[in-house]
Amino acid sequence: RCHPRPLLDALYALPPPPTPPDDPTDALEVASYNIELAHAPPPMPPLEAIVGTLLDHGGLPLATELATNSLELGSGEISGGLQTRLLAAHLAEDRAAGEKLLDADTFPEADPQATAQTCEELGLYARAIRLHPSADEVGRLICESAVDVSTAVEAIGRIGPPQGLAAVGRLVDTDTPEAAAKAVAAAIALHGTLGHSELASLFRPKEAGDNRERALLDYLRARVAAAGDDAALTFEYLGACCAAGQVDELERVTRDRSIAYDAVQACTLLREAGGAAGKDPRPLINVCDRHNLFGELATALLARRQLRHLMLYVRSVNRAASAPVCAALLEAGCEAARVAEVVAPLHAPSAPAVLGSMIDAECQADVVASLLEPLDGTHLAQDDSLAASLIEAAAGRNKLPLLKPWLDARKAEGLPPGAPNSEAIEGAIKQIKKWW
Questions:
Q1: Quick one: which H or E segment has residue 87?
Q2: Do residues 219 and 203 make contact, with C-beta atoms less than 8 angstroms apart?
């Protein structure tokens, strides 16, 4: 290997070739020219050959200088193949310098595919992805663990559908957590371009617990967070959570009032859910409480044998739900005594409706009496119409005598004279005595 500078100096020091004769017919001039030509050194090689020779003999800086000068002058003496070689040599020798040449487009005719291959061999995956003209090759490269999420998303967005969708599918098929994270990030960023339903179908799990299942949940969770008013999207997410047994997430979504969903659809989904989602009543309670579907809640928990949860809900969360819950349970065939346990202690404003449902279901008198017993004078003092409402509910069904134990107990407590409840109770007692 000789030093490149003396080699170049020697090439440029060669004398110019002999000058052809002015008069080709002059035999003396022609003979003289031929003699000079026979003894003259060979002509200087083309610039392409010089640059190639320098490159082969370790003269990369000088070869680059000659090539860039020629390219700036637009002489066209440096071919695309030689530009590719120069660029590859720079990348191999100094990656940072080579990337600067790429950024500056110093060698515009360099073969992008060959350069991308060089970058891939050197571990410069982001460069290789940007240079590769083949969408299939881009899809292959983004699956490499060394490629970060932002680079993968940018690459998928650049190639667009349907190649971009195929690239996401390739990431999903790789079936590693890293690849799944890239696929989810791309789906979130590019769902408008690639298509939501197409992306969701790519994430459908082949079996429970695989990376696809987690990817689908992550994708839909991000979509719902960004578009909480899309009821169809929320329902899709709820379905995915049910299938994956993500009960805590079901509870969170159904409780969040900023997230829209169709209440009837959600209630049906949760009532029919199996596995973990079918054992935890919290999501169903959230939906029914938020949308006043108390009858549906009562029958669902009765079918699941989860009346204790219903009891806690009525007592601690929404006592006003006791009336529709009572009616639904009795209509579904639940025993009156069990229903009384669920709705006790009775919510005073709901008491007339509960009483009416009990009478309609022909409940036993002792069950009705025990249910009404806690409604003492304190409740009457707080609601002037309570006694009249209870009496009307019973009298309207020709069952006023069912109230006799409660009426006698209230009278024994002492009734304030002239109070509306006092007058109603005294009148009901007289009416019962008249009947008896």
A1: helix 80-93
A2: yes
